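re: ur question from yesterday

yeah so i grabbed the chain u mentioned. its 259 aa long if i counted rite. heres the sequnce exactly as i have it in my notes:
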Amino acid sequence: MPFEFYFFLSSAFILGSVIGSFLNVCIYRIPAGKSIVSPPSSCPHCGHQIRWFQNIPVLSYLFLGAKCAACRASISFRYPAIEILTGLLFTLALYYFGFSGATLVYWVFLAALVTISFIDLDHQIIPDVISLPGIIVGFTCSFFIPWLTWMDSLLGIILGGGSLLAIAWIYEKIAKREGMGGGDIKLLAMLGAFLGWKAVLPVIFIASLIGCLVGIPLILVQKGDTKLAIPFGPFLAFAATVYLFWGRDLVYWYLNLLR
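ran it thru and got these structure tokens back, copy pasting raw so excuse formatting
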């Protein structure tokens, strides 16, 4: 692999970490109904406005010793973790899709998934302000991705939203309580818009499998509390990411296993 490509991969990581820094702002402000543009970033403990050199992704966290420059309050490790995660996802997208319009589309897609996942973990909500425009953006972008037709995207929206809606309705009828929020349904419709209808069932399967592997031990720790609320959005986002990068390989492996 030529040196120039490593340079561009490194550049993608840096860009992703910068976007990840912005996603930290979105994750904090969107559920609170605050503007993600103004005011500038500040310490949540003392209100100290963060200077540009104190807001360099990952590096500032290390240089400041994980503490606010003004009040010395601890800064959560999650901030640089999200920056690193976004940087790695941007690098993977460039590695797999190269210098194409698809890479730009999937950068937007992955940034949305990171934001949704951590908001859902914190508040158990998936903001409509991300998922609903995401459906429109995903469908529009299908015209610019050679291997995703607009019909695949449209069917992905219908199958994605419809399948989870059916599962939620069946669960509610059987269990007599709501088991899946409307946010998950809109999220899967968004995933179908970006990935196409063929991705919907594998994404549901992977998300459910990982959800069981995580959820069952948590329920056992909570002494069998089957009403324990576990956000499903991060599992859907993880499954969509797996499918985006390795979906075809997984499908071929599964089909060969059946043979």
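noticed a couple things. The chain has a mean pLDDT of 88. also The first helix runs from residue 3 to 29.
anyway ttyl
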